[in-house]
Amino acid sequence: MLNYIWLSLIVIGILVAVTIDFRDISTDKFRNGEEIQTELIFDSPTPQLEKGKHYKCNIFIPASEMQKIYGIQLSQNLVQEAEIIVSNSGEAVIKITTDEQSPTIWREHAGAQRKNGDILQGKVRITRMSENGFVAVLILDAVKFVKLNSVTNDGIVRYAKTAVELAIGLIGIMALWLGVMKIAEASGLITKLAGFLKPVTTRLFPDVPPDHPAMGAMIMNISANILGLANAATPLGLKAMEELNKLNKKLGTATDAMCTFLVINTSNVQLIPATVIAIRAAAGSTNPTEILGAVIVATTVSTIVGVTVVKLFARLKIFRKQLEAVSGEL
Predict the structure, then answer these.
(1) Which of 26, 151, 250, 298 has its CA 20 to 30 A from that of 256?
(2) What ranges do the domains of the chain cover?
């Protein structure tokens, strides 16, 4: 069912994007191919534009010209930093740096071009020299189907790529830790760990046999989380849920053990928050490990509160009645 919902959202997004794009094309929102009268102003003496060279300048466009072209009213004339690049063929390309002070239409145009962040690119044709530079005609590079490209490239394609990269990235760590778990299970290590933690685990998970594979997977998952090994904990958590589901009397309905394990997994006590320490170190912290005390206290409190709440919820009559109803159906 969820797949159909996602598919419907994608289709709706594409249809809305196409509708907006056709409206923009019909109204010529971005004025593709329109000639804009401008002036190129240089701080130093006006250079002789030579092939293969770059020149810094300011582009000056009167407010009346922006009103004429785009139908927008500016409180003052438009001045933006720009760079002129003269190709070997003699064609002059201009790159205009847009910012918060730039007209909204220009910022949208720059984003739609997808060439270099906030850079709006086009071509200029010099018509004559002026007192401070050149009088020229500006023609911005054309853009079409802006919203559709945004939905497909920035949305669908980008996140599909992210999903694939995430899945592939987990293959190695899943294979490693599931293999380690299998060896530990075959050697009897899981049984010994379960026996060692039996006083705690039997009270937290009374419905799970101490020697069941689910108990071993949960113990290893919690251990990995305590050490801050989030990537290692993920496959172990999935394995634990898979094993817990084998004890489930009604597939698709979370049991008390599943809910308790999920709470412990998400609020688990961390002795070594490796990920946070790595981020602090990368950000230039002089003492990235100074948060250890605060992290241990915070995660301990969150785990105690989480376990207490989930156990209290499990005792509520409404949930007990639902459990009895499930048992009666079976």
Answers:
(1) 298
(2) 31-142, 188-329
